[in-house]
Each structure stands twice: as C-alpha cells, then as structure tokens.
Amino acid sequence: MLTPEQIARVPKVLLHDHLDGGVRPETVAAIAERTGHELPVSDPAALGEWFAAAAASGSLVRYLETFEHTVGVMQTTEDLVQVARECVEDLADDGVVYAEVRWAPEQHLREGLSLTAAVDAVREGFAQGTAEAARRGRTIHARQILTAMRHQARSLEIAELAVAYRDRGVVGFDIAGAEAGYPPTRHLDAFEYLHRENAHFTIHAGEAFGLPSIWQAIQWCGTDRLGHGVRIIDDIDLTDPDDPKLGRLAAYVRDKRIPLELCPSSNVQTGAAPSIAEHPIGTLTSLGFRVTVNTDNRLMSQTSMTREMALLVDAFRYDLDDLRWFTVNAMKSAFLPFDQRLALIQDAIKPGYAI
C-alpha cells in the first residue's frame, strides 16, 4: 500500500478543477468582510465545514448553490488575481505539474469588470502563482478553461473569448451548471464555432442527468472530453461481473478514447456515485476507458489531488503504476499541443514516478 507521503510526492495532472470551487476559506472570509458580502458563518474554519456540509446533500442543484458565496467574493480585479494566484500555489504545493482550471467569466461582472478584464485578472494571478511556486522550487503549468453557464445564453460569446485568448493562457471551453432541463444542444452554435476555429472544448455531462446528456455531448456537440461522464456506467451490463457487456454508447466512448474527467469525492457528494468504494472508476479503469482523476471543487469536497488518489488507493488497492497510468492519461488528454504534452510526460511525469 502506498503511503500518503509517497502519493504527495508524485507528479499529478489535473484537468477538472473549478477556480470558484477551490478558494481558501480564509480568503472567502477576508474578502467578504472587506466587501460586505454576507456569509452563513464568518470564522474560516467553520466556513470550510459549512461548504463541505452544504455540498454533501446528494443534490447537484444544492451543491451548486454554495458557489454564490465563492463567486460573490471574486468580483474585482484584485480579488480575482488573489484567488487565481492562491489556486496555483495550492496546486503546486500538492505536486500538480499541469492544471487546467475552469471558471465562468460571465459570473464575475457584478462590480463592472468586462469579460476581457476578468480573464486578464486570472491570467495575471496564474502568472504570479507560477512565479511563487518556482521560488519554492516547484514547477507548474496552469491554463484556463473558460466556462459558459448552460442556463444562460452567452455561450457563443464565451466561446469567442476563449478563441481570442487561446495564445494567452486559455486552452479550452466548457459549459457547466445544472444538466436537467439545459441540454448541451442548446449551445450548438458555440460548439459549431469552436469546431470551425479548431478549438478544444469539454462538456459537463453524465454527472446528474445520465446517458442522454453524454450522447448529446458527443454525437451532437462533438466534445473532446466528458466533464465527469461517470454515468456512462449505466450503459454497461454488469449482471455477470466476469463478463461485462458494453452498450453502443459506452463502447463508442471507450473505442474513441474519449477522456472521462472523473471526480470521485464530488461524484459521491452530488449522488452520482454511492461511495468511493462503489465508484464506477474501478470498473471503468479495469475495462480500459480513458480515465482521469480530478478534484472538481477542492473547497466543497475538502480535497486535493493527493487525497483523491489516496482514497482510490485505499478503495481499490491501486499501486504506483496505476497512479502513473491515471496521470499519463490526463496528460495525453490535456488541451496543450502534442509536443508540450509529450515533453511533460517524458521530463516531469515519468521521472517523478521512478521512486
């Protein structure tokens, strides 16, 4: 069995992490006190516990309501820079060597910021965090994924913003929010635009709504990756555990090597999986799907990449080779150019697992 200390030391790749879901509790409390944003509790330790408890309701809708307080303290250039800087510092301290951090610029305009000013602020915060990590002897490459909210109508505008910034730290596009009632096909114009621009995108699908959401994301919208995608397990007949039978959609996802951005702790909190031990990641990994391990929302799940990996080691007896497989899967699936992905695998990941 790997120890938590061993897991903490190995390099990690993170593809699904929300900027507004990873704010430090003390930062939320400090900015809220300065700006007058009302919180349910003001003590940072108690606030962190409140976020975790509220997110553990088993409802994706209730889970998403917690973001009103993190988004509420990310409305100025100063605050966005701080949150972005601390995000990169925290990921680097956790051994993350490459991260794609997503957030929705349209939710950060209440105090007069423009979309471009918001993206520039996060870009500056990432640069500061990267420099501070280097000062501490850690190397991290952090990139933005710009998210559009699926219940709003600004997806094309955000997609155009992602393309405009793709040579300035933005590597992709995403849609997020409640799945039920807001299918990805409502945003086809954005996805068609991204295809024409040879741009990358991922779609939150198969977390709360199931197979129809996954099917639309892939076959109608042409997503590169599935944000979560955990409900693909519903298309696998496990009546005979020794002879699982993949349905047409599950077989397509596996055959096409479509990456699954699985987030074990978050999936349990939102009811997409019954427990870590019963999480579909075990079956999907054994069947050879392109599985990646992610944090989703570090604040709400009180987690890190080290903790997510440790939970899987405990539940499935994974060893160092398995963790390396997850990490290489993630790096292969990143929205970086191929040569940069290959360089990180060869220069950072493989040597880091030679322990």
UniProtKB/TrEMBL annotation:
GO terms for cellular component: cytosol. Catalyzes the hydrolytic deamination of adenosine and 2-deoxyadenosine. Transmembrane segments: none annotated. Binds 1 zinc ion per subunit. This is Adenosine deaminase. The record marks H228 as: Important for catalytic activity. One of its GO terms (molecular function) is adenosine deaminase activity. Residues 11-347 form the Adenosine deaminase domain. The lineage of its organism: Bacteria, Bacillati, Actinomycetota, Actinomycetes, Propionibacteriales. Keywords: Hydrolase, Metal-binding, Nucleotide metabolism, Zinc. The keyword Nuclease does not apply. Substrate binds at H18, D20, G177. InterPro entries: A_deaminase, A_deaminase_dom, Ado/ade_deaminase, Metal_Hydrolase. Its cofactor is Zn(2+). The active site is at E207 (proton donor). Pfam families: A_deaminase. Its EC number is 3.5.4.4. Zn(2+) binds at H16, H18, H204, D296. Belongs to the metallo-dependent hydrolases superfamily. Adenosine and AMP deaminases family. Adenosine deaminase subfamily. It is an enzyme of class 3 (hydrolase). It catalyses: 2'-deoxyadenosine + H2O + H(+) = 2'-deoxyinosine + NH4(+); adenosine + H2O + H(+) = inosine + NH4(+). GO terms for biological process: adenosine catabolic process; hypoxanthine salvage; inosine biosynthetic process; nucleotide metabolic process; purine ribonucleoside monophosphate biosynthetic process.
